[in-house]
Amino acid sequence: xxMHVLSGGRIRMKKAVFIPDAARTDLIELPVMCFxxxxxxxxxxxxxxxxxxxxxxxxxxWGGMARMMTLLSGHDDNVIGGLAALGFKPExxxxxxxxxxxxxxxxxxxxxxxxxxxxxxxxxxxxxxENAEQNGFLERDWKHPMPMKAFDGEHDLFGDERxxxxxxxxxxxxxxxxxxxxxxxxxxxxxxDAVSLKHNLExxxxxxxxxxxxxxxxSRAEVRRVEASGACVVFGHDAEQWDSLRKxxxxxx
Length: 253
Hints:
Elements lengths: L1 E13 L12 E13 L2 E5 L6 H4 L1 H5 L7 E2 L7 H7 L9 E3 L5 H4 L9 E5 H8 L10 H4 L5 E4 L3 E2 L6 E5 L8 E7 L3 E7 L5 H5 L10 H16 L3 E4 L3 H6 L9
């Protein structure tokens, strides 16, 4: 199995959302990470990043959220372009796993018309709730004709322990990670917004956009446990780590 790290865009937000002692005027630039997992039984995409329209008309795509974050990347800097550089079309993807259903993690779902979409059952419930849009869930991102399957608890995607989905609630009710086991380079824990920045794990604090801080703290403890067992933690939006990762045609195996 091979793992490719792909760009899902790049966003700018207030730094204080993630780091409590940052000045209110400080801004932070955040990479949006997606991952192509080329498993023998199918091509899996973990998260789909920002929709291209958000680069052209953010208010049309994001509504009020466009006031809270700015997409810095261009129209072609997204997971679709990243896959094309590898020779893949959206229809080559068999499974899309959404770590959660916020717009920067499922914005391109609509392009993967031949895929089965997976997310945690509690996440789908939150996205369908009456006040969902106020909590960052936009139907245009996740509600599509493709089959959408929900899992509950740990979920071994192909039954061979190569891609195991782990619930890490807190940021949202159903935030989940992927524990990826590669033959040559070992295990990688893709934590998405369960831990957005390395700083959040090191100083054990939750960003301001956390749904349930107590659950988020428990999830960080679980991340530390898996990390102590030898897994490499890949954070959701850490720019320094992003710069250090192999990306695009380079891969981990």
